Amino acid sequence: MSTGIPVQYFLVLATIMFFTGIYGFLTRRNLITMLMSVELILNAVNINFLAFNRYLYPHKLEGMFFSLFIIAVAASEAAVAIAIVINIYRRFATINVEDVNEMKH
Amino acid sequence: MINFSYTIWIPLLPFFMFIFLGLAGHKYFPKLSGILGTCGLAIITVLSYITAYKYFFTTEKVDGAFQKITAFNTTWLQFTDKLHIDLGVLLDPISVMMLVVITTVSLMVHIYSLGYMKGEKGFERFFAFLSLFSFSMLGLVLATNIFQMYIFWELVGVSSFLLIGFYYQKPSAVRASKKAFIVTRFADLGFLIGILILSFNTKTFDFISLTDPSGTAITQGSGIGFLGLSIMTWSMIFVFMGGVGKSAMFPFHIWLPDAMEGPTPVSALIHAATMVVAGVYLVARMFPIYALAAPVALNIVAYVGAFSSIFAAIIACTQTDIKRVLAYSTMSQIGYMMLALGVSGYGGHEGLGYMASMFHLFTHAMFKALLFLGAGAIIHAVHSNHMTEMGGLRKYLPITHITFLIACLTIAGIPPLSGFFSKDEILAAALHHNKLLFAVEYAVAGLTAFYMFRLYFSVFWGKETAYHHTPHEAPATMTIPLIILAIGSVLTGFIPFNQLVTSDGRAFESELELMVAIPSVLIGLLGIGIAYILYKKESAIPDKLAATFKYSYKWAYNKFYMDEVYLFVTKKIIFKLISEPVAWFDRNVVDATMNAIASVTQGVSFRIRGFQSGQLQKYGFVFITGAIMLAILFIYLWK
Amino acid sequence: MISNQIMFILFSAMIIVFSILTVTSRKILRAAVYLLFVLVSTSGLYFMLDYQFLAAVQLTLYAGGIVVLIIFSILLTSHISQKFEPTGIMKSVFSAIASIAGAILAIITILDYNFSATAQAAKEVDMRLIGNSLLSVDYDGYILPFEVISVLLLAAMIAAIVIAKRGGPEKSELPTLKQE
Amino acid sequence: MDILSLFVLIPVLTITGILLLKDARQVRLVAIFGMSLQLIMAAVLVFLYLSARHSGNTDEMLFVKDYLWFKSLNIHYAVGVDGISVALISLTSIVVFAGLFASWEVEYLKKEFFISLILLATGVFGFFISIDLFTMFLFYELAVIPMYLLIGIWGTGPKEYSAMKLTLMLMGGSALLLLGILGIYFNSAPNGGRLTFNILEISKVVIPISAQRIFFPLTFIGFGVLGALFPFHTWSPDGHASAPTAVSMLHAGVLMKLGGYGAFRVAIFLMPQAAKELSWIFIILTSISVVYGAFGAIAQKDLKYINAYSSVSHCGLVLFAVLMMNKTAMNGAIIQMISHGLMTALFFALIGMLYGRTHTRMINQMGGLMKVIPFLSVCYVIAGLASLGLPGLSGFVAEMTIFVGAFQHPELFYRIVTILAISSIVITAVYILRVIAVLLLGPTTNEHFEHLPDAKWFEKISVVTLIGSVAAIGLAPFWLSSMIGTSLQPIVDRIVALNPF
Hints:
The complex is a heterotetramer.
Chain A: H1 7-27, H2 31-55, H3 62-92
Helix pairs in contact in A: 1-2, 2-3
Chain B: H1 9-28, H2 33-58, E1 69-78, E2 84-91, H3 93-116, H4 123-141, H5 146-164, H6 171-202, H7 207-210, H8 216-221, E3 225-226, E4 229-230, H9 231-246, H10 255-258, H11 264-273, H12 278-285, H13 287-293, H14 295-316, H15 322-342, H16 352-382, H17 398-412, H18 418-433, H19 435-460, H20 476-491, H21 497-500, H22 514-535, H23 541-548, H24 550-557, H25 562-611, H26 616-637
Helix pairs in contact in B: 1-2, 1-4, 2-3, 2-4, 3-4, 3-11, 3-16, 3-20, 4-5, 5-6, 6-9, 9-12, 9-14, 11-15, 11-16, 12-15, 13-14, 14-15, 14-19, 15-16, 15-18, 15-19, 16-17, 16-18, 16-20, 17-19, 17-20, 18-19, 18-22, 19-22
Chain D: H1 3-20, H2 27-54, E1 62-70, E2 75-81, H3 83-102, H4 110-129, H5 133-154, H6 159-186, H7 199-202, H8 209-226, H9 235-242, H10 245-270, H11 272-298, H12 303-324, H13 327-358, H14 369-372, H15 374-387, H16 394-407, H17 412-422, H18 424-439, H19 457-475, H20 478-498
Antiparallel strand pairs in D: 1-2
């Protein structure tokens, strides 16, 4: 299905997605939206893995399994992160990241 | 050879007495300690007399000369193979003579103090200090080496400090003691440097090898030069600086008048008869080096002595505190002794000045102690130091009056009292050496007679003064020493010093030189005469004279403003210009630099701490920027 | 061929547009929905790459699980209608510069690099193979990562429960470290 | 039997004993018991040492014990003493003993106080017995650390500031020192072979001169900071002023001696060539210390500051003499360490006691105390006289040995500098007498002071111990001087062999 599309296209797409995620991570103030940015980043990585696997090493499955594991990790990460967010919300009554700076100094 | 090893007990006995009285006296026998101290001193006086007799009359002379005998010697501290401090007893004519002087005067002072200090607070402390002083002074004169001398030199300094400050609740006494110590300490610095230079070149501290006229020390030392003078000369000049301080010569004399704040017996013992002549003794001790290897230094000795004697004599004419008059008189007389040493040569008749100096030291100790003790008796009776508050005391204090008169005549050089003989020898020695110094000493002789009789007439004659309570003669403990010393003053002039104490230990002939003696007696009489006219009866002439020579009088009265100069140097220069800036510098520059280092570190760390803001996104930003930078660096820039 | 390319362009466009909307939208719920779109489009890409299983996982886990989780937590912590304060100009500018620079750098590198594919035949990815590989201890097996992930998931589950459980000191009792 | 390790073991056991105590009242008894034992041990050590020497044992170090500790770096726990260490160990035991009696009345956190104090003493003892550079450094640090607590917790005035300053400056010194020691270590086998920290082994080889030039200044300044080398002395006034009595005593009396001892035993002994080359710089610095400290003391008003500056001056003299690198001057340096240790401990003890009564240390607020508290005042006068170098007390012996030794230096420059340093004795006299005059003599100025109690029995023990030692050295210096001199001989031989004059 992927014939006619060079691998670079996928990689460029993933790059753009990745840096969009980065941008979001750096600018969003809300912890949940930051979490979403992280999901974007992970997705971009997944795309890369799969593209490489498909184009460069089609006889192997490392890329795919890695993506699979990343999805698993992302899921657990999301679970824990959201638990933390809820806890923070309880404690500080906000999930604005700039107000949560108890770790300062 | 006669065994002199017992002489070690002469200094040690007072030392143990000091420890004993100092530790136990206060608690257990405050009353008895005076008697104990006096007894101890009496024992060593007897020992000293025995030693003197044995040394001068029973010890065999070698080659017609008295030998230096090391009666006892032990190494106290080893520096290098050759340099070591020994503690020991060296007997030679001058040390034996000093033994006699010190023990005699000290014994008199002890007896006198039994009466004078009776009932004072700290009676036992006083005697403990006196014992300490006797110990140190005896150790000083018996020293076998120059470093031992320095040790005891410091110890007499500190005993003097303790005794001047005996009335420690009196601020003036405290000030005076401090001043005495610091001024002499400064001079001792010179002494120490002198010792170091000397020992560096000769590699020995020992007096016998240092002063051996044919020894290596003297023959080698004149070689190496520095600023035009030989090293030996330099070292002798520095050593003499110590002597200048201790003997209150110009310019280190300022402590002596103030030292009169101490109890009067102390003034008699330390600041008239014994400690202050230590400088003379020091020069006499090192005399062969001065005479043979460092003539320039010897000349300095002569001029310093001459200047001090006339300087002090002029000031003495204007002072009104009797103890201060006596103090300046002491300074003047020590100037005489210094001068005598300075004009002396080594050996035979050349050494007349040396002999004269020692002779004068001896007689001076007697009559000056007598004068001070007499002054003490007067003060005891009148409760004042000031001549202006005295007058007509001859009726109340007959014994004091007679003995005081004898002392005054002695110091004025009236024959046949002892002062005449010794002063005459000095003048004769000066005449042969240097006419200028001779003329100066003539003037001083006249001045001396004048101010002593000024003192005598104003105190015992002069105006009739009303006293609060009738002055009465002192108790026997005080008058007996006066009488003994008066007898001493009269008779000691007949001791044949030219047979006993000479520069090279050999006797030489000397006779009275009438050409010198007659004018000196005349000038003495002239001084007495002037004093008689001015002060016998109450008269206005002195005030008029003072008014006529207003400025000179004022200068002399204020001791030529030497105190002020010193005050300026210490307060303004040392304290304000050195110490306080140093302290300021330390706090505000050195310490501030250290603190600045600390603050910079702290400041930087505060800055760095700002990075740790807890802002997750800042961390992220820095991380990502950093990663990108590194990527650029490693991929594109760092090929 | 062409349809492929059209599909790719469509998916990429959706991904890029919705990604940007996700990170810039000022309403949090909308952001979540945009994220959902991105994830769905991504799974479309997976289909294009012939990884059907992964695409399915992506759809169920991401689009179904995580996004729902996110939306739940949004509902728990914010008002749906709540609008964010706009991000500080400086912050967004600097972040944008950093991101764009990074992106350009990466893209240049990618375009510069000459990717060379192997000539070996592609492996057919079917469910059986995936299952065997995951549980195999052979050279090609992934049993160790599989176990690790399992443990991780378990740990995450417990952790999420522990963290989210009510307890611990209240805010007022916290030591205040902000002195400076 | 390993007699030297007992000097570390006894304090450690004492500390353990104190830790185990339930009753705080017995703390000082245990502490004093332990430290008295230590004092006795020191006396035994002196006796054993002298009899060993007397029986013809001419080894450089006696009672040597060596246990391998870290094999990979060749670090040993190696101990051994010569006459110098023995003398300094005796000094330490005396000062610690007196210090405990002087802190008899500490009530606040008594247990911790005595533990820290004895811990400090442990470090000092360990330092003096070590002949392995690494162990030496370890004990050195062990001695410095409790100081921070002792000043910071039990001090007076701006104690946190002073404690911080003191510790940081000493730590800065240690940093340089560590560099220096490592430098020595890595150059300890220039001809191949195993690197070593052992001083005796290093002294058998010659460290390359290029390395010496780098590491001598580091080591010397490192130790010099502790020995109050100008311009690194400023911790001393603040630190001493804030420290509690016993700590001032120990610090000025003993800890500052580590600097002098180390400078001599490590810096100069191991690197004599660089020492000779660079000595002129440090001679200038130390002469500045000597004179500058004395002038600084004149302008001070706080008793402890006066004494701190005086310590700067006296400790400067130690380093000064060490740098003269001849036997007499070095002998003088060691005697000066001991003499200054005793004397300054005495001073600080007395100042502490005065402060405990009058609650001020400003001399212009006091006056005429001689009449009120004669015992303490007389002791103060004796301490003062010892400090200004009165013959018959230890200061004189030390200073004269230094001056005579220093003046034997063949180069004129050194002799002239010596004369400058000698001039400090006058300045010393000025400030000492000033204090005595203002503080003790004269009329009693403040009527609150009319009824101050004189010394209590434990204070008397403390003071009399110290005065006794000062006077003993002053009256009979020969045995001490010859004990040190014998041990100095091999060291001087090495220096002379490497630096033919």
